Amino acid sequence: APRLAPRMSSVGASPTAEISNKVRSLKSAGHAVVNLGEGELDFPTPPAIADAGIAAIRNGETKYTAVSGTADLKAAIAAKFLRENQLSYEPREIIAGAGAKQLIFNAFLATLSPGDEVIIPAPYWVSYPDMIRLAGGEPVIVETTRSEGWVLQPDALRAAITPKTRWVVLNSPNNPTGAVYSPEAMKRLTDILVAHPDVLVMADDIYEHLRFAGPFATPAALEPALFDRTLTINGVSKGYSMTGWRIGYAGGPAWLISAMEILQSQSTSNPSTISQAAAVAALTGDLGFMAEWISILRDRRDIVMDMVAATPGLEADTPDGAFYVFADCSGLIGSATASGKVLGSDLDVAGYLLEEAHVGTVHGSAFGAPGHLRIAYAVDTDVLREACARITAACGRLR
Ligand code: PLP
């Protein structure tokens, strides 16, 4: 019989896989399924950025580079951190990788020993807990609530810190809630962290540019006392619609960055040269396209919020960022479909919407928040409108 390593027993495939499989099989059966479960923008990568990738191929930039990224890319990343975040990193304090995902994973792998704890506010991005377990650590989940805007509360953070705490992960704008931490809310957390010098801070800023309201706050800039032990993670996937290019980057203390670089050098080496060149164009180029994207996304967010308001059993507050509405669907749990099936959980609600409305969403349990649905509005606006109408109609047929 095949034998897998024990570490494989602590992790599973992405919890969204089941929904994606059903979406695929409904589509192949000829149904017009709208997938509002996907965490990526529908916009094409801006042409000037894509052209820089094409030029890199033509220029023969097709060989190994420094593991942590080309000098050009590191300079563009350093300039971005300084310009947009008032953070000053040296080249040896910067690393580029195959997506923010690889960097987050390597940061955990480089630092966690058995029994080490990592504090994650829930709802959370699905990959954090499994990455932590793969690296031998223990995720410590701290709940946030809708009534507190899905923002981690200082008392909850204080209560979760133990002598074993190695990291605290902060993700704003947040996946799956769209919550944006105000500078004041962030400062209340960094004030606590200052008093715990052994705790590292991971700022997952991947949705930084996708905001409709409020300033952006990142811990290392807000609290200079934390600069030396904060890993600031970002990337081009979300803000520039470049998920497939696989470029993420991080700024942090040199000891940590060099450990992450060693892991990368023995696993994947440098991220794709073509993508690195495109990322330079993204980080140094004109951001003119973004205002239009934000305005399209704001309209779509409002379409989803109108749908939620018009659908008995769904409730949500307007999110300030990312491209998700995280709706409370507990009002639908316990109701029965026309065929008499009782919806017993958020997974059942998501399954019902998929089968009955042909709309894919992700159940909140996947993010550590049962009784909710994550609705990603990263699809064409007219298609979104149609999907929303189908959700409202399908919910209206529940008894
Ligand atoms: N962090 C969060 C919160 C995310 O939602 C994602 C993508 O879904 C990532 C990190 C990883 O992004 P990438 O690896 O594409 O840079």
UniProtKB/TrEMBL annotation:
Q: Which reaction does it catalyse?
A: L-aspartate + 2-oxoglutarate = oxaloacetate + L-glutamate
Cofactors, names only = pyridoxal 5'-phosphate
Do you know which CDD domains this protein is assigned to? AAT_like
| GO terms assigned for molecular function | L-aspartate:2-oxoglutarate aminotransferase activity; pyridoxal phosphate binding
User: Which InterPro entries does the record match to this protein?
Assistant: Aminotransferase_I/II_large, AspAT/PAT-like, NHTrfase_class1_PyrdxlP-BS, PyrdxlP-dep_Trfase, PyrdxlP-dep_Trfase_major, PyrdxlP-dep_Trfase_small
Q: Which SUPFAM superfamilies does this one have?
A: PLP-dependent transferases
Range of residues in the leader sequence? none
Q: Which PROSITE patterns match?
A: AA_TRANSFER_CLASS_1 (PS00105)
Pfam families under this entry? Aminotran_1_2 (PF00155)
A biological process term (GO) from this entry: amino acid metabolic process
Disordered: annotated segments: 1-16
Superkingdom classification of source: Bacteria
Q: Which family does it belong to?
A: Belongs to the class-I pyridoxal-phosphate-dependent aminotransferase family.
Which named protein is this?
Aminotransferase
Q: What species was this sequence derived from?
A: Faunimonas pinastri
